[in-house]
Amino acid sequence: MSKRAVLEVIALDAEDAVAAQAGGADRLELVTDMAADGLTPSPGTFASIRAAVDIPLRVMLRLADGFSAGSAADLDRLVRTAGQLRESGAREFVLGFLGDDGGVDLRAVELLADALDGCSWTFHRALDHAADRDALRKQLDGVPGLDTYLTAGSAAGVDDGLPVLLAEADRRGEPGYAPQILVGGGLCLAHLPRLRARGLDAFHIGGAARPDGWTGPVSAAAVAEWRHAVDGT
């Protein structure tokens, strides 16, 4: 039997998490403040979600909108926060930082990867805003814990990025292309057949799981529709 595709859903709280798991989500990305495109939740929020569901949780490490790690003090704070989350039981994370030139902020990424001490983590859609995504992938090749890239293939979303996603899927095995591609960012059900046909097997949804928008909760029925579509294509 083939391994089923991964469906990851953004959750803001325990209510979201319970609904997402009931709908068939395999994993959750935990964030707060979607007005800033998703920031780090508190250890208390993580603990309440961990107590409510038993599927894997990936916790965002990001203190401000944008893709900068901020000042040295900001980065120190983020490292401390990562440590607090690990003490609360977090074992999977999401992060990604760029410098002013659009290249990866390797120092920030390596510092956090070191603090995570082997925990699995996703490099998020900072990849889609990088000046050179191929160079970024190669610079991060071999950084401990990196097993996933969350990407739409373009800063504008999957509609524009589909050719890039398909091309990168064909580069599996090359340096920098071993991590799993987690497709997200303007992802629609109509995109799934082409993505699945090319072997892409991980999908990330946020607003698509919320019929009432970000002011409303995750809908188990909406997640179940995606589960069925992902499994059926």
Automatic annotation (TrEMBL):
The lineage of its organism: Bacteria, Bacillati, Actinomycetota, Actinomycetes, Kitasatosporales. Belongs to the CutC family. This is Copper homeostasis protein cutC homolog. Pfam families: CutC. InterPro entries: CutC-like (IPR005627), CutC-like_dom_sf (IPR036822). Gene3D superfamilies: Copper homeostasis (CutC) domain.
